[in-house]
Amino acid sequence: MTAVARNRVKAFSDHDFAQFIVTSLIAIAALFKFEVTAYVVMSDHVHFVVTAIEENADFKEMMKKWKQKTGYEFSQLHGRRLWQKGYWERVLRDGDNPLSVCRYLIENPVRARLVTHPSEYPLCGSTQYTIDEICQAVQMKGWWTPY
Fold first, then answer.
1. Is 128 exposed, middle or buried (0-12, 13-18, 19+ CB in 10 A)?
2. Chain-centre distance of CA 120, in angstroms?
3. Which of 86, 87, 116, 137 is in Cβ range 3.0-4.6 Å of 103 for a Cys bridge?
4. Which CATH architecture has domain 2-139?
5. Cβ atoms of 89 and 1 closer than 8 Å
6. Bridge partners, residue 51, by sequence
7. Measured on CA atoms in the order 51, 147, 116, 25, is the torsion positive or negative?
8. CA geometry: angle at 32 spanning 42 and 18, to 5°?
9. What's the pLDDT at 137?
10. What is the predicted pLDDT for the residue at 145?
11. Per-domain residue ranges for the chain?
12. Could you tell me the pTM of the whole model?
């Protein structure tokens, strides 16, 4: 899943606010019966993979609540809207290797030349795996690319 800041404003350059984004995501995901399999917060967008832990997990409502909570906080701090409308999502298929998808996701800061290894980037992680476990996914079958 990818959510983008309105007008690509660098809303998450403020580390404290970016950490609030992560903390809110993890809490709200749990409330809606999801694990945050991987996340990365870039300066103007957020990527994450969630895994339902119960059959009645409601992704659409989880996203609505997360964007509401974080958007409200941003508007209180800055007097303007945070998020672009909607978000981009992709459901993993049977042939997709979830850890490979997570590896691709947490390597965003490396591809952006912000760090040389995902473990150096403070705004990526997982509630299920360590960064090292995700990074080992490159050696697994089923390496994933976005298209």
1. middle
2. 17
3. 137
4. 2-Layer Sandwich (3.30)
5. yes
6. 35
7. negative
8. 20
9. 73
10. 52
11. 2-139
12. 0.90
Provide the token pair at 7: 């007008």
Those residues whose C-beta lies under 8 Å from the C-beta of residue 76, and which sit 6 or more positions away, are none
Tell me the C-alpha distance between 39 and 115, whole Å: 16
The three-state DSSP-derived secondary structure of the chain is CEEEEHHHCCCCCCHHHHHHHHHHHHHHHHHCCEEEEEEEECCCEEEEEEEECCCCCCHHHHHHHHHHHHHHHHHHHHCCCCECCCCECCCCCCCCCHHHHHHHHHCHHHHCCCCCCHHHCCCEECCCCCHHHHHHHHHCCCCCCCC
Amino acid in the structure at residue 112: A
